[in-house]
Amino acid sequence: MNERYLDDLKVGERFQSGQYIVTEEEIINFAREFDPQPFHLDSAVARQTMFQGLIASGWHTAAITMRLFVQTLNFAEGAIGLGVDELRWPNAVRPGDALQVETEIVDLRMSRSKPSHGIVRLRNVTVNQRGEIVQTMSASALVLRRSDTITQ
Amino acid sequence: MNERYLDDLKVGERFQSGQYIVTEEEIINFAREFDPQPFHLDSAVARQTMFQGLIASGWHTAAITMRLFVQTLNFAEGAIGLGVDELRWPNAVRPGDALQVETEIVDLRMSRSKPSHGIVRLRNVTVNQRGEIVQTMSASALVLRRSDTITQ
C-alpha cells in the first residue's frame, strides 16, 4: 500500500481498518505484564466479578486500536502521537472478539515549528463483531507533508 | 501489602510507585505487536528520525504506567477504568530509562448505580530517572468501598 502524507487527507474522511481477533491467551499475557487485576488474569476468578468472565485491559484495547490504525493509515515515516483525549471503554472486550477501528479525520493543519510536518486530529472508534463500541478516543498526531507542497 | 478501598483515600493524597526499567528488547517487542512505526522498531532506522534513536510507543509508556499504578495502589478486587483524559507524552522514553509514577487523588465520590463502589478521579504523572515528565494523564476508576461504610 502507498504511504500516506498529511496532504492526502481530507477533513471528514473515514477509514475502516481490518479485523483483529483477541485471544484469551493474549488478554492474560498482556494483563500479567501491564495490568495484573483479577478480571484480566484468570477466567475462573473473573467469573466471580461484575464482568462475569475474563475481559481485556483497556490499555490492551488501546494498543490493539493503535496497531489497526497504524496499519490502515500507513503514514510515511510514521505518525507521532501528540496526545489523546476522551479515551473511554463503553463495553468490555472478551476472548474471541474481533475488533475493528473506524478513523475519522477531524482537523488538519500545518505545524508552525516543523514546516515539514502537519498535525492531524482524528477520532478512533473501536467496535467488536456485533458492532458494539468497545473504545472511543480523540487524538492528535504529527505526520509528514509531501515535500512538493511545503512553501514555508 | 494491604488491599486498598475507596474509604482509605483522601483528596490530595499522593503515592509514589516503584521503578520500572524499560529495555530496548521490550520497546521493540511492544512496537512489533502494537505500534509498528520506524522510530519504535529498530535502533539504526530510529537514528535517522527526528528522535535520533529508538523511543518507546506512547501506548507502551501508558501500559507500564498502569502496571506501576496497579501495584502501588493495590485496590481490593481491582480498579475498573472508566475513562482517561489529557493523555500526553511530553518527553520520549528511551532504552534503559527507569520510569516511576506519582498518583494524586483528585476527587472521590460514591457511585449512584453501584452503592458497593465509589469513583476515584486521579492524575498520574510518569517521570524518568532524570525527573523529566514522559507522560501525564487524568483518569477515573470504579473501586470497592469497605462494606461497613455502605449505608445506602
Structural commentary:
The structure is a homodimer of 152-residue chains. The longest helix of chain A has 16 residues, at 58-73. Helix content of chain A is 24%, strand content 33%. Chain A is built from 4 helices and 6 strands. In chain A, β4 and β5 (117-127) form a beta hairpin. In chain A, strands 1, 2, 3, 4, 5 and 6 form a 6-stranded antiparallel beta sheet that branches. By secondary structure, chain A is an alpha+beta fold.
Task: Summarize the structure in short.
2 copies of one chain form a homodimer. Chain A contains 4 helices and 6 strands; from the N terminus they run ββααααββββ. Chain A is α+β, with helices and mostly antiparallel strands.
Mean pLDDT over all positions of chain A:
95
Poorly predicted runs of chain A are: none
State the oligomer.
homodimer
Largest sheet of chain A: 6 strands, antiparallel
Count of helices of chain A? 4
> What is the terminal-to-terminal distance of chain A?
29 Å
Can you count the beta strands of chain A?
6
The helicity of chain A comes to: 10-25%
Given helix and strand content, the structural type of chain A is: alpha+beta
The rough form of chain A would be described as elongated
Largest protein-protein interface: A-B, 35 and 35 residues
Please give the radius of gyration of chain A in angstroms.
18 Å
Question: What is the N-to-C succession of helices and strands of chain A?
Answer: EEHHHHEEEE
**What percent strand of chain A?**
25-35%
